[in-house]
Amino acid sequence: MPSEKSRLKGLTTMVAARKILTYAPSAIILVVFFFFWEASVAAFSIPSFLIPAPSSIFAELLGSKVNWMEHILFTTYETLAGFALAAVIGISTGYIIVHFRTISNIIYPYILAAQIVPKVAVAPLFFIWFGFGETPKILLSFLIAYFPIVIDTVVGLRAADPDLLDYMKLIDAKPHQVFFHVKWPNALPHIFGSFKVAMTLAIIGAVIGEFVGAQKGLGYMIVLAQQHFTTSIIFASLLLLVVLGTLLYLAIELAEFLITPWYRKMKRIS
User: Fold this and answer.
1) Looking at the structure, do residues 74 and 22 belong to the same domain, yes or no?
2) CA 81, CA 87: separation in Å to the nearest integer?
3) How many structural domains does the chain have?
4) DSSP string, 63-119
5) Domain of 263, in residue numbers
6) Are residues 40 and 82 in the same domain?
7) Looking at residue 128, which CATH number applies to its domain?
8) What is the pLDDT of residue 1?
């Protein structure tokens, strides 16, 4: 009999292979797009400060003196820290909204107001209050990623099967048993859905913070390149942000696949 570890490794490999096959057509289209982009820049003699050729962008990534890894790691750290904070506080807030009506009526308008306020407008305040270090970027990441996690947690906890809830009452289950055996498993697919949205939003928050004030990060590189009209660095930074966001999104999908096997079975049946 295969061990649990080898079975898990096999499942992970199967998911990776399936994803590669799923996204293969998109990858082919992307290659074709880059080919026509390169050809168009050469054919129409488009100046590099307007639209650089893909070859110039990749040359900037591979051959420039910019320490891209340092900037990638800095932006990734801000993104993951903000996302983790949003996940913990967002799920906790969702639990409170569902189970404590009085507190929910008090805090929900403030949560909505925090979502409505433009984050670009809040960014300068964060830098005044917390300085120009990592803290304001992490807080911006958290603020942007927080709302979808709260909403989907509430939806998931409230969408528990009424028949199962009645059964738990019938067997005199304690509140924590109802939560961990019925409400939490039902909410997990919703929460992972919010994680996918929140992770991409967390990157946006980190970049907004780097636009306002930073010495490192991919957002900082975009601002710096704009000042010197080095468009190839802007495109290179944007490309790295897309790759980073895609990898983090796929990491959430993999975590969902491993943590919610019952949900996978339900989707296959449906």
Assistant:
1) no
2) 10
3) 2
4) HSS--HHHHHHHHHHHHHHHHHHHHHHHHHHHHHHHH-HHHHHHHHHHHHHHHHS-H
5) 64-269
6) no
7) 1.10.3720.10
8) 47
Residue-by-residue DSSP string for 16-62: HHHHHHHHHHHHHHHHHHHHHHHHHHHHTT--TTTS--HHHHHHHHH
One domain for residues 38 and 69: no
80 and 213 belong to one structural domain = yes
What whole-number distance in Å separates Cα of residue 97 and Cα of residue 114?
A: 16
> How many other CB atoms are there within 10 angstroms of residue 197's CB atom?
17
Residue 22 lies in a domain: yes
Does 71 lie in the same domain as 14?
no
For residue 270, the model assigns a pLDDT of 46
Per residue in 2-55, pLDDT (tens digit) is: 566 666 566 566 666 666 667 778 778 888 988 998 899 888 888 888 889 888
pLDDT at 201 over 70: yes
36, two tokens: 């026509």
Encoded amino acid at 104, one letter: S
> Cα(145)–Cα(83) distance, rounded to whole angstroms?
6
C-alpha to C-alpha distance for 240 and 251, rounded to whole angstroms: 16
- 89 and 10, same structural domain? no
- For residue 184, the one-letter residue type is W
Name all contacts of 260-265 with Cβ < 8 Å and 24+ positions apart.
260/185, 260/188, 260/189, 260/192, 262/185, 263/188, 263/189
